[in-house]
Amino acid sequence: MENLKLIALDDEDLAIFSAHLQDAVVKTADMGFLPRLQRFAMVLNRFDWDQQVCANETVRRRTGLHFERVRDVKCRNMEEARRTGVLNLLAVTFIPGEAPSGFVLLTFSGGAEVRLEVECIEAGMRDLGPAWGCTHAPKHPVPEEVPETKDSAA
User: Fold this and answer.
1) Do residues 28 and 102 lie in contact, with contact meaning Cβ atoms separated by under 8 Å?
2) pLDDT in tens, 114-152
3) How far apart are CA 149 and CA 44, in angstroms?
4) Who contacts 114 (Cβ-Cβ below 8 Å, separation ≥6)?
5) What DSSP character marks residue 131?
6) Which among 85, 84, 52, 68 is positioned nearest to 122, based on CA atoms?
7) What is the pTM of this model?
8) 104: closest CA among 126, 119, 90?
9) How far apart are alpha carbons 106 and 120 in whole angstroms?
10) In the chain, which residues have pLDDT < 70?
11) What is the three-class DSSP state of 144?
């Protein structure tokens, strides 16, 4: 597979970013906010859900992610990340404010969050080099089915 290169200009585009970045790992030292440039950037090791080398080996890729027009950055529940220096990205979402502004929310395992206040959605994501094999794929528990209930009033 060729290296991925995407841009995001709305919340639907961010949902595509989120799907590609689920389970990416990032060192806290590889994240930064440049206030003068209004840019937040990070370099992650993303799990490539689209590619599998063989039955027992999956692939990770080094990926750059940046957000433009960022007014402010807030972090929450980062105690674990400060101790280990590593975060596991679960989702990238957008919380609308007064259009077109709002907040981009980066949600990590353990309840850690980075919230970017943005003028509008303007972001880029790009693989930075070749993929490498890894033997452990991320696993998520499958939620139990909720049994249907019958309405007693019917």
Assistant:
1) no
2) 999 999 999 999 999 887 777 665 555 555 665 565 554
3) 44
4) 31, 40, 73, 74, 75, 105, 106, 108
5) -
6) 68
7) 0.82
8) 119
9) 16
10) 1, 49, 51-57, 135-154
11) coil
Question: Which among 117, 31, 40, 36 has a CA at the least distance from the CA of 72?
Answer: 117
Residue 149: per-residue pLDDT: 57
Residue of 125, 100, 142, 123 whose CA lies nearest to 39:
123
Three-state helix/strand/coil letters over 42-94: EEEEEEEEEEEEECCEEEEEEEEEEECCEEEEEEECCHHHHHHCEEEEEEEEE
Per this entry, what is the length of the chain? Answer: 154
If you search the block for the tokens 């930075």, which residue do you land on?
128
Give CA–CA dist 118/45, Å, rounded: 24
Two tokens, residue 117: 């206040």
pLDDT for res 54: 55
Identity of the amino acid at 126: R
What is the C-alpha to C-alpha distance for residues 144 and 25, in angstroms, rounded to an integer? Answer: 27
SS3 36: helix
What's the pLDDT score for residue 152?
46
Look at the block and give the residue holding tokens 């389970």.
23
